[in-house]
Amino acid sequence: MAALELDDGTIHYQTSGDGRPLVFVHGGWMDGTAWEPQVNHFADEYRVVTLDVRGHGSTGATDADQYSIELFTDDLEALLSRLEGDQPILCGLSLGSMVVQEFLDRHPNSASAAILGGAVRSMPPVELPTAMKSLWSPLPALTTSLSLSGSTGTFQSMLQSIQATTGKRWLSVDSDVRAEAIDGVGDISATEYRKIFDALYQYDPPELTGVETPTLVVHGDQEASLVKRQGSQIAAEVADGTRVELSDSGHLVNLDRPHAFNRVTANFLERVTAA
Protein backbone atom coordinates (compact mmCIF):
# COMPACT_ATOMS: atom_id res chain seq x y z
CA MET A 1 0.00 0.00 0.00
CA ALA A 2 1.03 3.59 -0.57
CA ALA A 3 1.32 6.06 2.30
CA LEU A 4 0.19 9.67 2.56
CA GLU A 5 2.11 11.37 5.38
CA LEU A 6 0.13 13.99 7.30
CA ASP A 7 1.03 16.08 10.34
CA ASP A 8 -0.94 13.84 12.71
CA GLY A 9 -0.84 10.44 11.05
CA THR A 10 -0.30 8.39 7.92
CA ILE A 11 -3.16 7.53 5.57
CA HIS A 12 -2.70 4.28 3.67
CA TYR A 13 -4.24 3.74 0.26
CA GLN A 14 -3.99 1.40 -2.70
CA THR A 15 -4.22 2.01 -6.44
CA SER A 16 -5.02 -0.31 -9.33
CA GLY A 17 -5.23 0.38 -13.05
CA ASP A 18 -4.79 3.56 -15.07
CA GLY A 19 -7.01 6.39 -16.23
CA ARG A 20 -9.30 8.85 -14.48
CA PRO A 21 -9.22 8.43 -10.68
CA LEU A 22 -12.14 6.47 -9.24
CA VAL A 23 -11.79 6.85 -5.48
CA PHE A 24 -13.65 4.59 -3.04
CA VAL A 25 -14.30 5.52 0.61
CA HIS A 26 -15.45 2.61 2.80
CA GLY A 27 -18.03 2.44 5.57
CA GLY A 28 -17.53 2.67 9.31
CA TRP A 29 -15.47 -0.07 11.00
CA MET A 30 -14.49 -1.53 7.61
CA ASP A 31 -11.53 -0.83 5.32
CA GLY A 32 -10.66 -0.51 1.65
CA THR A 33 -11.00 -4.25 1.01
CA ALA A 34 -14.79 -3.76 1.24
CA TRP A 35 -14.55 -2.50 -2.35
CA GLU A 36 -12.82 -5.58 -3.80
CA PRO A 37 -15.70 -6.49 -6.18
CA GLN A 38 -15.65 -2.93 -7.51
CA VAL A 39 -11.86 -2.77 -7.80
CA ASN A 40 -11.84 -5.98 -9.84
CA HIS A 41 -14.56 -4.65 -12.11
CA PHE A 42 -13.41 -1.08 -12.75
CA ALA A 43 -9.58 -1.29 -12.68
CA ASP A 44 -9.45 -2.06 -16.42
CA GLU A 45 -10.95 1.35 -17.22
CA TYR A 46 -10.07 3.62 -14.29
CA ARG A 47 -7.29 4.33 -11.86
CA VAL A 48 -9.08 2.79 -8.90
CA VAL A 49 -8.08 4.07 -5.46
CA THR A 50 -9.16 2.65 -2.11
CA LEU A 51 -8.11 4.31 1.12
CA ASP A 52 -8.28 3.19 4.72
CA VAL A 53 -9.91 6.01 6.69
CA ARG A 54 -8.37 7.02 10.04
CA GLY A 55 -8.99 4.39 12.69
CA HIS A 56 -9.54 1.68 10.08
CA GLY A 57 -7.47 -0.97 8.33
CA SER A 58 -3.82 -0.28 7.57
CA THR A 59 -4.15 3.38 8.51
CA GLY A 60 -5.19 2.50 12.05
CA ALA A 61 -4.98 4.97 14.93
CA THR A 62 -3.75 8.50 14.34
CA ASP A 63 -2.75 11.29 16.71
CA ALA A 64 -6.03 13.18 16.43
CA ASP A 65 -7.91 13.18 19.75
CA GLN A 66 -11.24 13.28 17.93
CA TYR A 67 -12.43 12.19 14.52
CA SER A 68 -15.03 13.90 12.39
CA ILE A 69 -16.45 13.60 8.91
CA GLU A 70 -14.85 16.97 8.24
CA LEU A 71 -11.42 15.59 9.22
CA PHE A 72 -11.92 12.51 7.05
CA THR A 73 -12.80 14.85 4.18
CA ASP A 74 -9.64 16.88 4.79
CA ASP A 75 -7.74 13.61 4.33
CA LEU A 76 -9.62 12.86 1.10
CA GLU A 77 -8.72 16.30 -0.22
CA ALA A 78 -5.06 15.67 0.62
CA LEU A 79 -5.17 12.32 -1.15
CA LEU A 80 -6.77 13.81 -4.27
CA SER A 81 -4.04 16.46 -4.31
CA ARG A 82 -1.45 13.69 -4.18
CA LEU A 83 -3.16 11.81 -7.03
CA GLU A 84 -3.15 14.95 -9.21
CA GLY A 85 -6.13 13.73 -11.22
CA ASP A 86 -8.64 16.11 -12.76
CA GLN A 87 -12.36 15.63 -12.14
CA PRO A 88 -12.17 12.40 -10.08
CA ILE A 89 -15.11 10.09 -9.57
CA LEU A 90 -15.94 9.56 -5.91
CA CYS A 91 -17.75 6.56 -4.45
CA GLY A 92 -18.62 6.30 -0.77
CA LEU A 93 -20.41 3.69 1.32
CA SER A 94 -22.25 4.66 4.53
CA LEU A 95 -19.64 6.68 6.48
CA GLY A 96 -17.87 7.07 3.16
CA SER A 97 -21.04 8.53 1.66
CA MET A 98 -20.94 11.23 4.36
CA VAL A 99 -17.34 12.01 3.42
CA VAL A 100 -18.28 12.31 -0.25
CA GLN A 101 -21.26 14.54 0.62
CA GLU A 102 -18.99 16.81 2.66
CA PHE A 103 -16.56 16.97 -0.26
CA LEU A 104 -19.37 17.83 -2.69
CA ASP A 105 -20.55 20.60 -0.38
CA ARG A 106 -17.04 22.07 -0.35
CA HIS A 107 -16.45 21.51 -4.07
CA PRO A 108 -19.83 21.53 -5.87
CA ASN A 109 -18.39 20.84 -9.32
CA SER A 110 -14.86 19.50 -8.76
CA ALA A 111 -15.77 15.82 -9.14
CA SER A 112 -17.05 14.45 -12.43
CA ALA A 113 -19.48 12.07 -10.68
CA ALA A 114 -20.41 10.71 -7.26
CA ILE A 115 -21.85 7.34 -6.26
CA LEU A 116 -23.27 6.98 -2.74
CA GLY A 117 -23.93 3.42 -1.58
CA GLY A 118 -26.01 2.98 1.57
CA ALA A 119 -26.15 6.77 1.54
CA VAL A 120 -26.82 8.19 5.00
CA ARG A 121 -26.87 11.75 6.33
CA SER A 122 -27.26 10.96 10.03
CA MET A 123 -26.98 7.77 12.02
CA PRO A 124 -29.92 5.35 12.05
CA PRO A 125 -32.20 4.40 13.68
CA VAL A 126 -32.73 7.80 15.35
CA GLU A 127 -32.66 11.11 13.50
CA LEU A 128 -32.14 14.07 15.83
CA PRO A 129 -31.74 17.81 15.19
CA THR A 130 -28.16 18.89 15.70
CA ALA A 131 -29.08 21.04 18.71
CA MET A 132 -30.47 17.99 20.53
CA LYS A 133 -27.50 15.70 20.00
CA SER A 134 -25.61 17.07 22.98
CA LEU A 135 -28.70 16.65 25.18
CA TRP A 136 -29.37 13.04 24.17
CA SER A 137 -26.00 11.43 23.67
CA PRO A 138 -25.39 7.67 23.42
CA LEU A 139 -21.67 8.15 24.04
CA PRO A 140 -21.69 7.41 27.82
CA ALA A 141 -23.58 4.16 27.21
CA LEU A 142 -21.27 3.38 24.30
CA THR A 143 -18.21 3.84 26.51
CA THR A 144 -19.68 1.43 29.06
CA SER A 145 -20.50 -1.12 26.37
CA LEU A 146 -16.99 -0.92 24.94
CA SER A 147 -15.45 -1.51 28.36
CA LEU A 148 -17.68 -4.54 28.98
CA SER A 149 -18.11 -6.07 25.52
CA GLY A 150 -15.30 -4.67 23.41
CA SER A 151 -15.63 -3.42 19.87
CA THR A 152 -17.22 -6.54 18.40
CA GLY A 153 -19.84 -6.93 21.12
CA THR A 154 -20.72 -3.24 20.96
CA PHE A 155 -21.08 -3.39 17.18
CA GLN A 156 -23.34 -6.44 17.44
CA SER A 157 -25.52 -4.67 20.02
CA MET A 158 -25.82 -1.68 17.69
CA LEU A 159 -26.89 -3.95 14.83
CA GLN A 160 -29.50 -5.63 17.01
CA SER A 161 -30.88 -2.24 18.00
CA ILE A 162 -31.16 -1.07 14.42
CA GLN A 163 -32.69 -4.36 13.26
CA ALA A 164 -35.23 -4.28 16.11
CA THR A 165 -36.19 -0.71 15.19
CA THR A 166 -36.38 -1.23 11.44
CA GLY A 167 -37.73 -4.78 11.36
CA LYS A 168 -35.33 -5.52 8.50
CA ARG A 169 -32.08 -7.43 8.01
CA TRP A 170 -30.45 -4.03 7.48
CA LEU A 171 -26.66 -4.51 7.47
CA SER A 172 -26.58 -7.40 5.00
CA VAL A 173 -28.84 -10.15 3.71
CA ASP A 174 -25.79 -12.37 3.11
CA SER A 175 -24.67 -14.23 6.24
CA ASP A 176 -21.07 -14.41 5.02
CA VAL A 177 -20.91 -10.68 4.30
CA ARG A 178 -22.44 -9.92 7.70
CA ALA A 179 -20.05 -12.26 9.53
CA GLU A 180 -17.00 -10.80 7.78
CA ALA A 181 -18.11 -7.25 8.63
CA ILE A 182 -18.55 -8.18 12.29
CA ASP A 183 -15.19 -9.98 12.41
CA GLY A 184 -13.45 -6.93 10.99
CA VAL A 185 -14.67 -4.75 13.84
CA GLY A 186 -12.60 -6.86 16.24
CA ASP A 187 -9.43 -5.38 14.74
CA ILE A 188 -10.44 -1.89 15.90
CA SER A 189 -9.59 -0.82 19.43
CA ALA A 190 -12.25 0.48 21.79
CA THR A 191 -10.68 3.94 21.68
CA GLU A 192 -10.75 4.10 17.90
CA TYR A 193 -14.28 2.60 17.80
CA ARG A 194 -15.54 5.43 19.99
CA LYS A 195 -13.80 8.09 17.90
CA ILE A 196 -15.34 6.67 14.72
CA PHE A 197 -18.81 6.49 16.30
CA ASP A 198 -18.48 10.07 17.51
CA ALA A 199 -17.61 11.24 13.98
CA LEU A 200 -20.76 9.58 12.64
CA TYR A 201 -23.04 10.73 15.43
CA GLN A 202 -21.91 14.36 15.55
CA TYR A 203 -22.00 15.00 11.81
CA ASP A 204 -24.22 17.89 10.77
CA PRO A 205 -25.01 17.16 7.11
CA PRO A 206 -24.97 20.05 4.64
CA GLU A 207 -27.69 20.92 2.19
CA LEU A 208 -26.51 19.95 -1.27
CA THR A 209 -28.65 22.33 -3.32
CA GLY A 210 -25.59 23.96 -4.89
CA VAL A 211 -23.96 20.68 -5.97
CA GLU A 212 -23.63 20.31 -9.74
CA THR A 213 -21.86 16.95 -9.68
CA PRO A 214 -24.05 14.16 -11.14
CA THR A 215 -24.84 11.92 -8.18
CA LEU A 216 -26.13 8.35 -7.98
CA VAL A 217 -27.62 7.08 -4.70
CA VAL A 218 -27.86 3.28 -4.34
CA HIS A 219 -29.75 1.55 -1.53
CA GLY A 220 -30.69 -2.04 -0.81
CA ASP A 221 -34.36 -2.90 -0.29
CA GLN A 222 -33.57 -3.97 3.30
CA GLU A 223 -32.14 -0.55 4.12
CA ALA A 224 -33.69 1.37 7.04
CA SER A 225 -36.63 3.50 5.92
CA LEU A 226 -35.06 6.58 7.51
CA VAL A 227 -31.90 6.07 5.47
CA LYS A 228 -33.90 5.61 2.28
CA ARG A 229 -35.62 8.93 2.96
CA GLN A 230 -32.26 10.58 3.47
CA GLY A 231 -31.05 9.14 0.17
CA SER A 232 -34.10 10.49 -1.60
CA GLN A 233 -33.37 13.91 -0.11
CA ILE A 234 -29.81 13.79 -1.43
CA ALA A 235 -30.95 12.83 -4.93
CA ALA A 236 -33.57 15.60 -4.90
CA GLU A 237 -31.22 18.32 -3.61
CA VAL A 238 -28.36 17.97 -6.09
CA ALA A 239 -28.80 19.37 -9.58
CA ASP A 240 -28.49 15.95 -11.23
CA GLY A 241 -29.46 13.21 -8.78
CA THR A 242 -30.67 9.65 -9.29
CA ARG A 243 -31.68 7.08 -6.70
CA VAL A 244 -31.74 3.32 -7.37
CA GLU A 245 -32.92 0.56 -5.02
CA LEU A 246 -31.57 -2.97 -5.46
CA SER A 247 -33.58 -5.97 -4.31
CA ASP A 248 -32.21 -8.67 -2.00
CA SER A 249 -29.63 -6.40 -0.40
CA GLY A 250 -29.04 -4.43 2.77
CA HIS A 251 -26.89 -1.52 3.88
CA LEU A 252 -23.74 -3.10 2.42
CA VAL A 253 -25.35 -3.04 -0.98
CA ASN A 254 -22.07 -3.19 -2.94
CA LEU A 255 -21.24 -6.52 -1.25
CA ASP A 256 -24.73 -8.06 -1.16
CA ARG A 257 -25.31 -7.39 -4.86
CA PRO A 258 -21.84 -6.66 -6.31
CA HIS A 259 -22.71 -7.39 -9.94
CA ALA A 260 -25.88 -5.30 -9.82
CA PHE A 261 -24.08 -2.48 -8.00
CA ASN A 262 -21.30 -2.52 -10.60
CA ARG A 263 -23.83 -2.54 -13.43
CA VAL A 264 -25.86 0.46 -12.22
CA THR A 265 -22.62 2.32 -11.46
CA ALA A 266 -21.19 1.59 -14.91
CA ASN A 267 -24.43 2.64 -16.62
CA PHE A 268 -24.48 5.85 -14.61
CA LEU A 269 -20.87 6.65 -15.49
CA GLU A 270 -21.55 5.97 -19.17
CA ARG A 271 -24.43 8.45 -19.06
CA VAL A 272 -22.30 11.05 -17.33
CA THR A 273 -19.47 10.58 -19.81
CA ALA A 274 -21.83 10.82 -22.78
CA ALA A 275 -23.37 14.00 -21.40
Automatic annotation (TrEMBL):
Gene3D superfamilies for the chain: alpha/beta hydrolase
Describe the location of the AB hydrolase-1 domain by residue ranges: 22-263
What InterPro entries is this protein classified in? AB_hydrolase_1, AB_hydrolase_fold, Carboxylesterase_BioH
Q: What is this protein called?
A: Pimeloyl-ACP methyl ester carboxylesterase
